[in-house]
C-alpha cells in the first residue's frame, strides 16, 4: 500500500508567470531566479529549493538597496 507522508515539506515554485530576464542582473523580473535556477527547479531537492528561496530574498533586499541608492532627493 502506498501512502503519502503529508509531513514532507514541498517548496512551491516562486514562478509568477512574468518571465523576463533582466540583462543587468541575470534575474527573472517575476521570480528573481537565474536561468540555471529556473531550469533546475523541477529536479532540485528541497535543500536546494530552500537555498534558492533564501537567495531570492537576498536579491530583493539587494535590489531595494540599489534602488534607494539611486534616489537623489535634490
From TrEMBL:
<dbReference type="InterPro" id="IPR010710">
    <property type="entry name" value="DUF1289"/>
</dbReference>
<dbReference type="Pfam" id="PF06945">
    <property type="entry name" value="DUF1289"/>
</dbReference>
<protein>
    <recommendedName>
        <fullName>Fe-S protein</fullName>
    </recommendedName>
</protein>
Amino acid at each position: 500500500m502506498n501512502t503519502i507522508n503529508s509531513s514532507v515539506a514541498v517548496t512551491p515554485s516562486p514562478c509568477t508567470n512574468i518571465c523576463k530576464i533582466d540583462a543587468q542582473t541575470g534575474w527573472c523580473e517575476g521570480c528573481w531566479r537565474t536561468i540555471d535556477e529556473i531550469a533546475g527547479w523541477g529536479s532540485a531537492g528541497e535543500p536546494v529549493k530552500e537555498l534558492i528561496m533564501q537567495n531570492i530574498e537576498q536579491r530583493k533586499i539587494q535590489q531595494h538597496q540599489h534602488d534607494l541608492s539611486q534616489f537623489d532627493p535634490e
